């Protein structure tokens, strides 16, 4: 079985020589394997295509993919139009349980949530005709999903959804947090959620002025407060600090005792403590995706990292994703490259104090701290996009800065934008050290304004690292990236820093990313939203301990090296706290 996918945003028959038609051996023999449709996009007939792949190589805009599917796949559940992405399988919500969905970007996780939450009516892969619910139900007869789909088709099920891209909320809602949440209090638990998600301080603020972390928590409170039969949460961790992630996870577990919850999540440490079972999503991003049967959470995560599904007998990746444990060498003999001065910056409600410090040549300085404690403000002061009230950064230091929130509002293609930032685009260094680890090659011809959150993030990292600079600043590079990409960008940022007469500062809430990347750590402390102060830089163990001790969270490593959060109050948790080993530990080895 074979599928042909045309990435419509990259298909421009007016601008190319219609190479897909010109070089197709079947077209040369006289049939219509590839034609240009009325909407000026290529259409590939999957019945006629022989799968030679010549059109894929010849297309100047990388707009085509032809893929042979694994044999055992049966009927698709949905296809986004002719030559569009195809999805096989659905997750199953279960009474009393949190069901997770784990997989790379662009593999159909959100699509499956849209189907189960009733936003998208499945078409069983048939894009040229109306497909009735009866046909869908016939297909699921005798399966665990039948009852659920029947209720859904009869519109007899009430669902609550936390959408993936919360930055859309201010575009459709203009009132205050109180106005928005007031309409959702259907179970009389809103005050409880406001308290547990520490939203009291922002309750009268206009939605448009909230930070990403605050908006994420408002969206969560809005979803959890509804009186629904089923709850669907599409990524809860972006922009939340570790403490807030744990608080959100605990609330979701509480809710799952009463109502089924389905969650999509890339943060493995959180998914691990939150979900009872996981469905793995595999396939080829933007081409096809398969949702597996449910697996126990620990087994499922390990199979996903391994890239092999023993029950299905499918290897979907040729290599395993491994979590390196890095020996953190003392680098005290590195030369000091630059000094940042003592600075202060005050907003109406918040003030930041920074004691001066130094960053060494080739060093990566990790930055940890709660939401709203001044990390991005500090980055803005260093980068010169914010004016300090006292102190001033040396303007001779050349800075390359990736901000936390990305704008993707240009129609220029990825390649055009990258070429504007570097003269090295055509070198093999650029291919191997930038494009490959960020998996950018396949969408170089895509216009920036059509990229997903994870794709845009990777382009922004490439732009930042492409410039010549003395100091590279990356604010939350892991947001919206899948697990594999997080491991890859961590290695890549490290490699970029090593052996270069430059320094790098990385702010991130993913503890593992900070562990992988950093030589030393700056810890931001204070009272979120009111005052913050940068402490350090500390060596890795001291920095991690200082940050995690304040949160009361300990980590251990499992056999594969993956960091896992210890259950609060468990034997290991108590033992590590007593030994003062919050992250790097001798005890759990
Ligand atoms: N309305 C749509 N029309 C056409 N294609 C779509 C549509 N929505 C999504 N797609 C495509 O379907 C594929 C799967 O998208 P989906 O959002 O379900 O992935 P995902 O696994 O949730 O990814 P991520 O982790 O990045 O959120 C992507 O290639 C996407 O471009
Ligand atoms: N331009 C501004 N005007 C007023 N207040 C601001 C402004 N920028 C930031 N703040 C406030 O300053 C505080 C610190 O914000 P900052 O973005 O530096 O925090 P952060 O530690 O980076 O948080 P996060 O982890 O959520 O990104 C927050 O309370 C924020 O609301």
UniProtKB/TrEMBL annotation:
ABC transporter domain sequence ranges: 64-307, 327-550
Protein name: ATPase
4Fe-4S ferredoxin-type domain sequence ranges: 40-69
Keywords: ATP-binding, Nucleotide-binding
Signal peptide boundaries: none
ATP-binding found in the keyword field: yes
Species of origin: Methanoculleus sediminis
Pfam families xref list: ABC_tran, Fer4, Fer4_RLI
The keyword ATP-binding appears for this protein: yes
Family matches, as InterPro entries: 4Fe4S_Fe-S-bd, 4Fe4S_Fe_S_CS, AAA+_ATPase, ABC_transporter-like_ATP-bd, ABC_transporter-like_CS, P-loop_NTPase, RLI1, RNaseL-inhib-like_metal-bd_dom
Superkingdom, taxonomy of origin: Archaea
Single GO molecular function: ATP binding
């Amino acid at each position: 079985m074979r599928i042909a996918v045309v990435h419509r945003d990259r298909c421009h028959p007016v601008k190319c020589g219609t190479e897909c038609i010109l070089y197709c051996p079947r077209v040369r023999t006289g049939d219509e394997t590839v034609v240009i449709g009325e909407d000026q996009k290529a259409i590939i007939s999957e019945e006629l295509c022989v799968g030679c792949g010549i059109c894929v190589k010849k297309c100047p805009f990388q707009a085509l993919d032809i893929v042979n599917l694994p044999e055992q796949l049966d009927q698709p559940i949905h296809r986004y139009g002719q030559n569009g992405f195809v999805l096989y399988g659905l997750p199953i919500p279960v009474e009393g349980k949190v069901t997770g969905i784990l997989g790379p970007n662009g593999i159909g996780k959100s699509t499956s949530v849209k189907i189960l939450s009733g936003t998208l009516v499945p078409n069983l892969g048939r894009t040229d005709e109306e497909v009735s619910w009866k046909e869908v139900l016939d297909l699921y007869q005798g399966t665990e999903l039948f009852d659920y789909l029947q209720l859904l088709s009869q519109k007899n099920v009430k669902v609550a959804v936390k959408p993936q891209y919360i930055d859309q909320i201010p575009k459709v809602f203009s009132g205050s947090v109180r106005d928005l949440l007031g309409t959702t209090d259907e179970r009389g638990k809103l005050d409880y959620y406001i308290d547990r998600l520490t939203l009291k301080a922002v309750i009268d603020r206009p939605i448009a002025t909230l930070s990403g972390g605050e908006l994420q928590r408002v969206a969560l409170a809005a979803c959890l407060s509804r009186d629904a039969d089923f709850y669907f949460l599409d990524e809860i961790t972006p922009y939340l600090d570790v403490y807030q992630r744990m608080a959100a996870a605990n609330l979701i577990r509480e809710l799952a005792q009463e109502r089924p919850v389905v969650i999509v999540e890339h943060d493995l440490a959180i998914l691990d403590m939150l979900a009872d079972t996981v469905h793995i999503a595999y396939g080829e991003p933007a081409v096809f995706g398969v949702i597996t049967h449910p697996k126990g959470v620990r087994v499922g995560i390990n199979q996903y990292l391994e890239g092999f599904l023993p029950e299905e007998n499918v290897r979907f990746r040729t290599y395993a994703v491994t979590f390196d444990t890095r020996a953190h060498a003392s680098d005290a003999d590195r030369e000091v490259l630059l000094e940042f001065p003592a600075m202060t910056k005050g907003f109406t409600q918040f003030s930041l104090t920074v004691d001066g410090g130094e960053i060494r040549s080739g060093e990566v300085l990790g930055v940890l701290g709660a939401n709203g404690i001044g990390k991005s403000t500090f980055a803005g002061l260093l980068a010169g996009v914010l004016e300090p009230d006292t102190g001033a950064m040396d303007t001779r230091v050349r800075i390359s800065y990736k901000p936390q929130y990305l704008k993707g509002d240009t129609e220029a293609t990825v390649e055009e934008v990258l070429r504007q930032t570097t003269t090295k685009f055509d070198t093999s260094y650029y291919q191997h050290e930038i494009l490959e680890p960020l998996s950018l090659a396949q969408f170089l011809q895509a216009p920036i304004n059509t990229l997903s959150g994870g794709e845009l993030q990777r382009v922004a990292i490439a732009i930042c690292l492409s410039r010549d600079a003395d100091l590279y600043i990356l604010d939350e590079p892991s947001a919206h990236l899948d697990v594999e990409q997080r491991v890859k960008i961590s290695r890549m940022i490290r490699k970029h820093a090593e052996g270069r007469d430059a320094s790098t500062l990385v702010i991130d809430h993913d503890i593992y990313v900070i562990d992988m990347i950093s030589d030393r750590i700056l810890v931001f402390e204070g009272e979120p939203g009111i005052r913050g102060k940068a402490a350090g830089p500390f060596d890795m163990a001291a920095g991690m301990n200082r940050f995690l001790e304040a949160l009361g969270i300990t980590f251990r490593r499992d056999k594969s090296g993956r960091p896992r959060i210890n259950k609060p109050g468990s034997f290991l948790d108590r033992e590590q706290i007593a030994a003062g080993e919050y992250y790097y530990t001798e005890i759990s080895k």
